[in-house]
Design brief:
Strand content: under 5%
Mean pLDDT: 88
Structural class: mainly alpha
Number of helices: 13
Helix content: over 70%
Largest sheet: none
Distance between the termini: 67 Å
Oligomer: single chain
CATH class: Mainly Alpha
Order of helices and strands: HHHHHHHHHHHHH
Length: about 300
Amino acid sequence: MNVQIIELVLVTIVTAATPLIIASVGELVVERAGVLNLGVEGMMIAGAAIGFAVAFLTGSTFLGALAAIAAGMFMSLLFGILAVGLAANQVASGLALTILGLGSAGLAGASFVGQKRESAASLYIPGLSDLPLVGKLVFGEDMFVYTALALVIAVSWFLNRTRAGLALRAVGENHGSAHALGLPVRRTRMLAVLFGGACAGLAGGYLSLAYTPFWSPGMTAGRGWIALALVVFSSWKPWRLLAGALLFGGATVLQLHAQAASIGLPGQVLSALPYLATILALVVLSLRNRRGSIAPGSLGTPFIPDR
């Protein structure tokens, strides 16, 4: 295997991992605030549909990305009103959001099925982008890949190095005590939910604007559910989440190469490899943490302030 093939495989792994990184980083912040949003898949598909529609009509990938973010935030606002504002059941609200997102995306993108556009432009720095092995991997990616890495760095710094991050973690661990200390529990959770929606929408936008620059119903293909699993896999830590997303990307590339090599297994089995790898990783994590859950203490529990 020569250097060019190795570089191509590494670039493909990063490309496959990027939407998972973006979506799961947003969900990690939401869950660290004590909210469980199972609507990631719905927000992603809505971002993919709206982002492609705006980019196709305007010819601007940047405007398409902004529209994808706005679509994800709007969907998450609906969830926030129910789960945070009205203290509705978070699991039911999240599942409803996924159903709503799938349906509305199919409606909004109906007239764009089969349409194609140019993929998001990639960075090119003369000399650096042509370096063997690391040129395209480090200096030749599109803006979404660099945004994903920046989000991991920013969220890690925010949660561990800032007062606001400490307050968010306190709300997620024990919202009753946080409220007693004067922390704005509902506002903190709502802002976290909106951030998670923005990330999920951007992740969906990446799929239709860069990964496969066209719109197709169901193009998220369960990535929203994998993003939810990655948050658990990472033990709610951003850098572990990055490693988990790259693991899933590697499994995706493996099944593509296995299909191309015609190794004799059914295509459905090979397509399931990334998801089987995620399940296996979750099982291993559960066996390692038998002593108890390491999830935020108030995760999934509605907050109702004392009157």
